[in-house]
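Problem statement: downstream parser choked on a complex file, so we are re-checking the raw output for the pyridoxal-5'-phosphate run. The parser issue turned out to be on our end (a line-ending mismatch), but while we're here, posting the original submission so the record is complete.
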Amino acid sequence: MKFRTRAIHVGSEPDPATGAVVPPIYLATTYVQPGAGTWGAFDYSRSGSPTRAGVERTLADLEGGCGALAFSSGMAAIHGATMLLRSGDHIVAGSDIYGGAYRLLHKICNRSGISVSLTPVNDLKQFEAAMRPNTKMVWVESIGNPLMSIPDLPAIAEIAHRHGAWLGVDSTFTSPAIMRPLELGADIVMHSATKYLGGHSDCLAGVLATKDPELHKELYFIQNATGAVLAGLECFLLQRGIKTLDLRMKEQSQAALEIAQWLETHPLVSRVLYPGLESHPQHDLAKRLMGDRFGAVVSFEIRGDFAQTKKVCESTKLFGLAVSLGAVESLIEQPASMSHASYDAAARAKFGIVDSLIRISVGLEDIEDLKADIDQALHIACT
Ligand SMILES: *Cc1c(COP(=O)(O)O)cnc(C)c1O
């Protein structure tokens, strides 16, 4: 069956007990056992529940994995993956990663003796040079954030594996409706399901999926031992969101491309970063990995300073001033003061996260309304 069909039916079969087309939400935390010391399918909801098992089956199927795990947030999922490592191990990560991932790697993982090097993902030579004998994991985002760099996943997988490291890919910005990293060489794919997978700004969730049963078992052990599992209602909301994922990604990618093309012609905009644009330095690679959809996040630099950039973000009426992305409602933010404020100023400067950079997430509103809203905000702030 095709992707769109599987997104609707796999893991969401009618309830065998009642025939309900939408399976119920199991809220039970504990399950009676057939005998002392013998176990049924479920025993305690940290270890698993029918509701979580359903959405995990959907996610594994859509990612082409042998299993998936639903976490209480995207950060909990990334943390789960880093717990595969031990003191003395080293991580090579892409340099324009999510601010929260930067913080986790630099301010939490370091407490367990795990070190991190950041490397631009679009330079394979630097990537190779960053690998050390103790590098156990390479961590990149399918589309870098906020600079929209694209990692050549098959090439980076080859480098990681040659050095005996796992490749983990945060695929939040693409979702399985655009790209499936496990098919491109990744060992672990991770999502902040809070974004496109849930899609409606009402469900905080994270995912890890793998194609190696041993690795899946180890990650399940970590998740059950540490407890950051996704609760029943959130599993249900995530399952519901996934049913329209393909439809939303198609529409939102198309709208984002049109807005990016329009921004390129705007006199108050100096640069637009979007993998779907011919002007994107890695457009050909993006097409090879993603096909004809490039996601709904667009970054652009305005002809203005820090204060004017802030003013643009505060002057839109339709675009909400907020750090998230991937939902039906459009959002706008200034990375330097918002999503990437947890990078220190020197790191921002080094990696090109300039003060005049704006990031938008294009939702499902009418595209003419969205363009008009950005246009009036640019004129308020910059003229
Ligand atoms: C939001 C986000 C995260 C963190 O996920 P939460 O669900 O907010 O914990 C990680 N990576 C990327 C790319 C994100 O956008």
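For whoever reads this later: The mean pLDDT is 96.
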